[in-house]
Write a structure and sequence with these properties.
This protein is mainly α. The chain is 68% helix and 4% strand. It has 2 domains: 81 residues, Winged helix-like DNA-binding domain superfamily/Winged helix DNA-binding domain (Arc Repressor Mutant, subunit A); 144 residues, Four Helix Bundle (Hemerythrin (Met), subunit A) (Up-down Bundle). It starts with 21 loop residues before the first helix and ends with a helix. Keywords: DNA-binding, Plasmid, Transcription, Transcription regulation.
Amino acid sequence: MSTMTHIRQTASEGDDLNEDGGASIYERLRDDIIHGRMKANERLKVAELASRMGTSTNPVREALQQLRGEGFVIMTPNRGARVRPIDEEFVRDICEIEVLIEPALTRWYVGIVTKAEIGEMERIQAEIEALNFGDETKHSNLDLQFHRLMYDRHYNRHAVDLWVRHRQILRAISRGFPTSLSRQANVLQEHRDLITCIKNQDSDGAATVIARHVEGSGRHIIERLRLGKRQA
């Protein structure tokens, strides 16, 4: 049985079809690639995908073009589309983009943050500290709350949306392995340092901390991917 047969036939809750069906197809294909239901270098045949998803070929073509733009799909002349491997190079590329985006978002946030928001950051961080990575899923959700609080009010929605997409990708990849003890300690300290810089209105310091945070996350994921290869 080919991997294609494992593609979900229906959209998940909250993923209703738009009028042209394209958005839902894009989300479903992206999710299948991230979670490994579609294997690295697998051929993506438009007619077969359209049949599986109960739609015409045009929405599938549009979804594949969007996925190509985001790096999930590779298209080559005379060979069509195939799944890009979610590997070290893929993670590196994302993190190199994020180390440019997140410091800029953070600098802006330092200039507009309120006392109430600082209090909320401290509350979320207290929950993260109390959990102490005892539940990786809960930690990931709390960590997302922490960073969304910083970025959600930014005027550049394209930058924020790109951060959200990258966050989803890295989160899905990292589900396959636990966070190392050294990375756990670094995450907690980086959050503390970030809050301190924000409270002190130190935009340069906050930008430096968040860049270190992103780089550390990328290194950790790449190290774990390498470890998985060695153990395979």
